[in-house]
Design goal:
Low-confidence stretches: none
Structural class: alpha+beta
Distance between the termini: 29 Å
Number of domains: 1
Helix content: 10-25%
Largest sheet: 4 strands, antiparallel
Number of strands: 4
CATH superfamily: Trypsin-like serine proteases
CATH class: Mainly Beta
Number of helices: 1
Strand content: 25-35%
Order of helices and strands: EEEEH
CATH topology: Thrombin, subunit H
Shape: globular
Mean pLDDT: 78
Amino acid sequence: MDASGMIRARSRTGTSCIGDSGGPLLARGSNEIAGVLSGGDETQCDASGGNLYAPLASNLDFVDEALSRSNAR
């Protein structure tokens, strides 16, 4: 995690591209979602940069509230 509380990670397939926001960051070796894609260098779409993910564990209250308002459950 960096100083802003975000997770910086690099994907095997490249950095984020336009439209990728909200995609999952899976914990290594499992199907557990560790974070949600928040940003990256959308102009590159290659493996040279990193992505920023909002950590899911520290934002569960926000996610629960948003889901309850959206009737998505």
